[in-house]
Design a protein that fits this description.
five-stranded mixed beta sheet; 10 helices; about 30% helix; alpha+beta; 16 strands
Amino acid sequence: MTRFPVASLPAPGPMAVDWEDRFDPARLRAYRLERAREALAASELGAVLLFDMNNIRYVTSTTIGEWARDKLMRWAVLTRTGGPYLWDFGSAARKNRIHAPWLADDEIFGGMNGLRGAVRPEAGLFGRTTRSIVDVLRQDGVADMPLGVDVIELPMHAELVAAGLTVTDGQQVMLNAREIKSRDEILLLTTAASMVDGVYQDIFEALKPGVRENEIVALANKRLYELGSDDVEGINAISGERCSPHPHVFSDRLIRPGDQAYFDILHAFNGYRTCYYRTFAVGRASDAMRDAFKQAREWMDASIDLVKPGVTTDQIASVWPKAQAFGFDDEYECFGLQFGHGLGLGLHERPIISRLNSLDDPVEIKEGMVFALETYCPATDGTSAARIEEEIVVTSTGHEIITLFPCEELMVANAY
């Protein structure tokens, strides 16, 4: 089925104005914190200890940039009766007392626990962190209940256990909270996608022989930041003989006449992310390229057509081909090629849809979910391949597609 998506969900400009109802930061902050409290209350946990940057942002509405994502040196605690409490990196704590008035001043602390081992555990920072966490758990009357943690360093875990705490999985609670997006979250996700719509126009015009993959990556980064992105997480740029198998990384390869090329743009607007593939041919397209694209499109459309509340993820995954049908030994080898994943503050939220996990552990599709669907088809020429991705908002009656750059048929850039 040929589809021409029409923008029905708003994607206003990124600025705040007084003459249109746009993104409301206060409403977003209140929604996210309430969702987290509800998920915590529905669990057996007394509190969650959060080192995952996405979870910290979800409950505190604070961030200090992409550079901090893998450092595990800032954390937050949300208890059944109090918080959120935030321990931030150095001067960021003082900054938060000035610029984050929705947090109580006496619930913001300076924090540091080792920068993933760069400060040796013997220095005692993990122990000091543990004591400060135990203090707020006792204050809020939940120290005797299980403590959920999302991600953690081993020395930190050892200190918590040594302090007598029962440490268990808290990531499930947070992913439960983040599963259903609010009006503001959907608006931010749609706005982020609209930026990529425009960048794909720039790529389509720039895509010609003699341009290197890394130059396309540079172009996309520049344009996204000019448009208002706050984090370009990554750009895949893959062409020619690199298309099959999918390498998941760009190179300095020179694009040549007749190449097939596909791209993935991952960036965030106000923290909310995109994952958005498009495939092109350069100058001209072979029959093998067109056939691969047509097949990837058919798999995509079959899965999109199923999306509505009440459908389960095994139904969606079942319309995608088995690994062996497109040249792989098993579902582990081809994971991520016929794929669906939730989008939000994180690139991979719920639901995760694939033949690897969904057939045995299906999840119900619900109104308010936002996720990307991806398909991939290698071409019969042995080197080319087509890659398509659409972002979907689940509505009360079905779905809306928010990735609008043309993808009904293989587009030829700078055709001869």
